[in-house]
């Protein structure tokens, strides 16, 4: 995941966990998002003394809101036969 030209871009190897793990992709996606949220919540705590749990709560609230009512559309699609999905929002 990266930001370029004021837009969020990402690359995902769709189905990777279906092929190589006991944890299915749908659950693994939640685990990855949770891990990212904890890292994002920890950054302000170390740099500014912000309470990590408070930031994590706000991230969770914003995530649920964005899933329910997206601020932008999802663009992108599968590229070739590699199983990778590329997109930008």
Automatic annotation (TrEMBL):
Source taxon at top rank: Bacteria
Looking up InterPro entries in the UniProt record yields: DUF5076
Pfam families named in the record: DUF5076 (PF16826)
Could you identify this protein by its name?
DUF5076 domain-containing protein
Q: Which organism is it from?
A: Stenotrophomonas lacuserhaii
């Amino acid at each position: 995941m990266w930001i370029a030209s004021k837009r969020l871009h990402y690359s995902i190897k769709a189905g990777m966990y279906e092929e190589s793990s006991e944890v299915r992709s749908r659950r693994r996606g939640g685990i990855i998002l949770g891990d990212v949220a904890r890292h994002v919540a920890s950054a302000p705590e170390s740099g500014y003394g912000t309470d990590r749990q408070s930031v994590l709560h706000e991230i969770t609230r914003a995530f649920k809101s964005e899933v329910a009512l997206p601020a932008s559309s999802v663009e992108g699609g599968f590229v070739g036969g590699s199983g990778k999905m590329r997109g930008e929002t």
